[in-house]
Amino acid sequence: MTDPSLLVLSSLADGDKHGYAMMEDIAAFADITLGPGTLYGVITRLEERGWIRALDSDDRRRPYRLTPQGRQHLQEELGRLNRVVKAGQRRLRPA
Amino acid sequence: MKFAIQFAARLIYPRKWRERYGREFDALIEDTSVTFAALIDVVSGGLAMRVRMSHPAVLPVVLGVAGALMASLAAFVVTPTFEARGTIEVRSSTGTNVDSRVPALFTAAMDREFAAGEVSPREIGVNLADHAGEVQVTYATSDPQRAREVVQRVLGGVVEANLREAEAGSPPMTVRVQAPVDLPRAPLRPHRAWLTVGGLTGVLVGTMAVLRRRTASS
Lengths: 95, 218
Description:
Strand content of chain B: 5-15%
Shape of chain B: rod-shaped
Number of helices of chain A: 4
Order of helices and strands of chain A: HHHEEH
Largest sheet of chain B: 4 strands, antiparallel
CATH topology of chain A: Arc Repressor Mutant, subunit A
Radius of gyration of chain A: 15 Å
CATH class of chain A: Mainly Alpha
Largest interface: A-B, 17 and 23 residues
Radius of gyration of chain B: 31 Å
Shape of chain A: elongated
Strand order of the largest sheet of chain A: 1-2
Oligomer: heterodimer
Helix content of chain A: 55-70%
Number of strands of chain A: 2
Strand content of chain A: 5-15%
Order of helices and strands of chain B: HHHHEHEEHEH
CATH architecture of chain A: Orthogonal Bundle
Helix content of chain B: 55-70%
Distance between the termini of chain B: 38 Å
Number of domains of chain B: 2
Structural class of chain B: alpha+beta
């Protein structure tokens, strides 16, 4: 699972996070380091689609939250990926 | 390096995007470790965002102009090359096939006409034309006058080589230069179509990028 959009949505699935916290979290659970340009490209796209939303903050580090639509999309995508993983594992098993 | 990343971010990202995300993006850059990869990521991210937020027609136009500029640059960098052409007719007076004797005739002509290193025989094109007995000679160089002179010397040399062979007792052949060698006017390279092809390629790539973007976002 290396699609940056899914990584960001997965990161926000367990709570609100700002950009740097997302980068750290993704590096920890996926061992993938997203650059600042990539991360904010994804954030821009996800916010436009209504899958995440920015929270009010006095801090420059603005946190983001997964919306219900974003959660549904993540569930669908993970379900699809899960089917691919299961099929791949089943086919790799020795006959 | 951190300054370079922040400077690149301010320079490349669209103003509208920076109004919305600029503060938090700067804060993120301050927090992240400074690497060359981060700089590349910010630059490519900024360019992608600029393309994404621009009018759909902008990308084909920009890439079209860029393609035309690159083609123009290539046209200026490449030294113009002019090619002179001449055709000679070689026929046997007795009706026998002369094709086997033609290469030797040209080799003898070029060996005699050109001092070592002046013109490499490999640079001179000698090709049998569609009509039997016709041989086309070509030579390309940056000086059109010199291109014509070399072809004329080769053709003249072939005529003389044939006379020498006849004097030496070889079966007679008729060798005739078909027409005077014209001075080449238009360069063989760079081709004017480069500019058009470069521009059209840019427009095509830009249009495909816009269509791909629309497909991906739908």
